[in-house]
Amino acid sequence: MLYKKKWTLRHFGKIEQDKMSEKIGISPEISQILKNRDIITEKDAEIFMNPSLDYLRDPFLMKDMQKGVDRIKEAIEKNQRIFIYGDYDVDGVSSTSVLVLYFKSIGYDVNYYIPNRLKEGYGISVEALEKINEMGCDLLISVDCGITSAKEVEFAKELGMDVIITDHHECQDEVPDAIAVINPKQEDCTYPYDFLCGCGVAFKLIQALTPPEEFKTTMYNYLEIVTLATICDIVPLKDENRIIVKNGLKMMKDGKNIGLKELIKVCGIDTHQIKSSHIGYSVGPRINASGRLGYSYLGVELFTADDPKKAKEIALDLEEKNNERQLIESKMYSEAEAIINSDLAYQDDKVLVIANEGWQHGIIGIVASKLTEKYYKPTILLTIEEGMATGSARSIKGFSIFDALVKCKDLMTKFGGHEQAAGLSMNMENIDELRKRVNEIADYNLSQEDLIENVKVEYELQEGQVDLKLVDDLHLLEPFGMSNPTPRFIMRDLLLSNIGFVGAAKQHLKLTLQKDHVYEAIGFNMAYLADDFTRGDKVDVLFQLDENNYNNNRKVQFLLKDVRMAHPKSAIKDFNSIKLFSKIVPKDTNNLYQIDYNLENKRIKENNFGENEISDNFYNKSNDIKNINIFEYFKEDTLVICNTLNGFFRAYSDLSLIEEEFDVEFGEISKNTHKIKLIFSPNLDKLDLNIYNSIILYDVLYNKQEYLYLLDNISTNSKIMKYYDEKSKLYLNNIMENIVPTRQEFIFVYKYCITNIHIDITLNKIKAVFGIMPLKLFTILSVFREFNLLNYEINDKNNNLIIDFTEESVSKFNLDESLILTNMKHLRESCLESY
C-alpha cells in the first residue's frame, strides 16, 4: 500500500491559545502557521505581518555595489553610451524595465538589448555584443544574466566596453572579470539576504544610485514591477522579498505603472482583490509568452509606456501572444507524453530526458515544468535544430539539476541556472549520454521515496475550526509564495457523499464531503481522480481553504490538492483490503497462531490479568483515545500492531503524516530495528518483543492470553499504548465470523477448482465468482495447499489471484486433519471467549 503523494504535518495535535497570538492580536490558528515558518518571536511576527519598506537593507552591503555605482555615475558625467542587457523572461524584462525607468527619471537616455529567445538563446552572446558595439556602447549593464559569461565579458572588453554584471543566478568556478559583479550569490559577498530575484538586485542598484531620502519617494516608481518579477521568479517570499511583494501588491490596487495596470485589466482581475496567485498565474505568463515567442521587447515597452492608449494596445498584443503560446504548449505537451509512453525505459528513469525536432525554444520550460509536476521527476526537455539540442531543465526537491549539469558539463556547449531550473545547449549526439549520466547521478542521489512528492501540511483541521473567519484570517499571511506557501490543511475520515464534475470538458472534480458538517470541495483539473473512489467511501482530503461567493452567499470551500482513501465503502471490492485479508490466514503449518501459551513460571499470571494489575505497563488503561495525541508516541524502536482493516487504515494514515520512515510488514517482522514498524495480524510468539521501547496497539489483540504473552515478553521499561476503543472488538468479531468456512463452502470451491484447473481473476471478483467472502476463500485455499491440492498466489502488480490445481490432487481428504483449519477454529473460539 503506497500513497501517490506523501503528506507531512508541520504541527501535530490540537491548536491552542498562546502568548504570541494574544499579544499581537491574531488567532491561535494563524499563530501556529507563523511558528510553522520558524517565526516564533513577537518581533519577527510583527515584521512578518506588517513588513515595512523601512526594513529594506543597505544596498552597499552587497559586494561591488560601490564600484558599480561609481562607474555608472562616471558614465553619466562623461555622457557615455549605456546599454542594459536583459533576459527574455519576466524577471529579465522587469529588470530591464526598472533600470530604463530609472535612467528616464534622471533624464538620461539609455538603450536596452534583450536577446531573441528563438534565435539567440539565454544570456550574453558574442553575436549580441557585436550588434551592440555597432550601435555604440561604452558601458554594458547586465540584469538577470551574465554571471556565467566570463568569455563574453572578455570579448566585450576587447571591443572597448566596460561591463557591470547584476545577476542572482548560481555562480560557476570562473566569475567574469567585469568592472563590478553584483550578485549576492557570490561566496565572498556578505549581503545578509541572497535570495533576491534579478529584478530585486537591479532594484538594489537603483536604491544605491539614489539618495536615501529621495529613494523613499521614487522607489514607488519601480515597486510594482519588482513585485511582479519576485513573484514570477519563484524566490522565497521572506525578508526583503516579502517586504517588496506585500507593499507592491498594495500599490497594484490603484496602479501607478500604466502598462501593468492595463495588463491587469486585460487579465480580468479585480485590482482590489489582487493576490500573488493572480500575478503568478495570469499576469506573469502573458509577459513570458511574448518572450517565448521572440517578442520580449513588448514587455519593456509596456512597463515603460507613458500613454495609456499605447499601453492598452501592447497589453492586447500580449494577450494574443499568450493565446498563441497556449496552443503551441498543448501540442508540445502531447508530443512529449507520446515519447514517454513509447519508451518503457522512461518508467525506470529517475530523470526524464526528452528530445524532439522542431519544438519551440520558448515553450520548452513550461512543458518541462508540467511534466515534472505530473511525474514528480526532474525533467530535461530539448529541441533539436541543425545538429544542436537546446532546452530547459526543471527539478524536484532534494535534487539540484544545476549540480547534475555541472558534472556533465563536458557534454554541453553552454548551461546555467540554479537548483530547481536550468538552461542548456549541446550537440545532439550527446543527448543519449546525457540521459545515461544524469540518471546515474540521480540513482546515487535519489531514492524511490524521494520520487514521491512530499506535501507539507500546516496541521489537521478540526471541524470547529472551519469557518469564514479562518478564511479571512489567512489573508493576513499573504503574499504567498516560496517559503511562505499558501497554507494547506487536511481533514480525515470524511464520508464521500457525492462525486460530480464541472467545467466545459468536465475536467474539474467536485466533491461533497460529510462529517458532522457538510463541505463542498473542488479540484481543478482533477477529474481523473474520480476513478479511484466511489460514493460511500471514507476519504482523507488535503486542501486550501477558500470561499464560494455566489449571489452574495459566502460559504467555505475546499480547494482540493489531493484525495486519498481513508477506508473503502466495500472491503470486498478494495484491492488493499483483500490483500490484508490474505495476510490473516497462516501461509503454512509453520505459521500457525499459538493460542495456548505456556504461562507457568512466568512473571504474569492469567488470574492476575486486569487493568489495575497491569497499568504500570500501559500508557492508556482507560481506552479513551479522544484526548491522546498519538504522534507524541511515534519514536524510534516502536512497534505498531493492527488486527483489523479499520485499525490498519488508521495506523497507516497516522504514520504516513510523520517525517520519519516506517516499515510495513505482515505476520512476521524483520530484525531491523530503529525504524517504526507497522505489522498486521502478527504471530506474537515469533516476534522479538524486547527490542522495542514501546508498542502501540491500534486494535484489541486476538484474545486475553496474547496480552499476557505480550506483557511477559517485553522489556521491563517498555510501555504499551492501547489506541483503540470498543468498536475494535466489533471489527475483530466480524473477522472471526468469516474466518472459518463451512463444509459446503469447501466443497463448492473444490469443485470449482477441479473444473477450471487454472484460475486467474482480479481480487475484487472473488465474491462474485466464489460466492463467499475473500477471507474465507483464503482459509480454504490455504487448507487445500496444506493437502497439496493446489497452489495459489496474489499478483500485486495486476491485483490478480492465480490458482493452479495440481495433477497429483486426491479425491478424498479429511478436513479435520488440517492443522490450519483447526488453528483458525481455535483462534475464533479464544477470541469469542475473550470478548
Task: Write down the Rg.
Answer: 33 Å
Helical percentage: 25-40%
End-to-end distance, in Å? 30 Å
Strand arrangement, major sheet: 3-2-4-5-6
Shape: elongated
Largest sheet: 5 strands, parallel
- The SS-based structural class is alpha/beta
Uncertain runs with pLDDT below 50, 5 residues or more?
Answer: 604-615
**Total beta-strand segments:** 26
Mean pLDDT: 89
Quote the beta fraction: 15-25%
Please give the count of helices. Answer: 29
Give a short synopsis of this structure.
The chain has 835 residues and is an alpha/beta fold. It is 38% helix and 19% strand.
Describe the structure.
Helix 5 crosses helix 14 (297-303) and helix 14 (297-303) runs antiparallel to helix 15 (308-342). A hairpin with a 3-residue loop joins strand 15 (508-514) and strand 16. The longest helix has 35 residues, at 308-342. The strands form 6 sheets. The protein has a 5-stranded parallel β-sheet with strand order 3-2-4-5-6, with helices on both faces. By secondary structure, the protein is α/β, with parallel strands linked by helices. The two termini are 30 Å apart. Mean pLDDT is 89; it is low at 604-615. Helices cover 38% and strands 19% of the residues. It contains 29 helices and 26 strands. The protein is elongated.
